[in-house]
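Sample entry was shown:

___
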Amino acid sequence: MNISENITFPEASQEDRSLAIREALRNAIVDRRLAPGTKLSESEVGALFSVSRTVARAALQMLAFEGLVRIERNRGAFVSNPSPDEARQIFASRRLIEPGIIAAAVERITAADIEQFRRQLEEEQRHINERGPSARRAEIKASGDFHLMLASVAGNVILQKFMDELVGRSSLVIALYGRSGISSCGHNEHLAILDALEKGDAAQASQLMLHHIDHIEADLDLQLKQGFALKDALALT
């Protein structure tokens, strides 16, 4: 995808520009086009998006706050390079948090929520059936959105923020250590979790969620993968 065709800044504020660049870089990190350890130069990011270094710096700082980028003094910004121990800690955190989200969600979920989840999973399946970089990006986003929607239904804003960070960091870990090219979240497992939620069976839904997280982590092989250069990963011309 040529991101330059989708990001334009007529009359946009500096904050809006930084947010748009943050989203473009986050997508490139999450869908594995920017490998962990890739240097993200303020000047290069600014030049690629035709913005000032100040705007580029703000976008990189947003990503650093989310844990997707690390900023080193006198060296610049880099895509975070989580260690195997950090990878295990991320999934350990998800095992602690997501069953609690399930327990809260099952008490609050409505028929309208279930219908929204069904539509989201239909979209996820559609992207799985499609081909190409844009479909792959949409599939990864849809998979992560399932977990974020559960956090939203649970009604705890703090947990939603935790999950947004954990989903992003999980995608980064999968980019670095993932063994297969399949989606990080199994579509059928999402369906099973939703079925249990619809029945009001919190115990079953939690068990299925833990199995799901185990399945994601089991696909890690702790082997580094080669990514693209920044310009190539963003497909900017």
Summary: Residues 3-81 form a domain with the Arc Repressor Mutant, subunit A fold (CATH 1.10.10.10). Residues 106 and 199 are 9 Å apart (CA to CA).
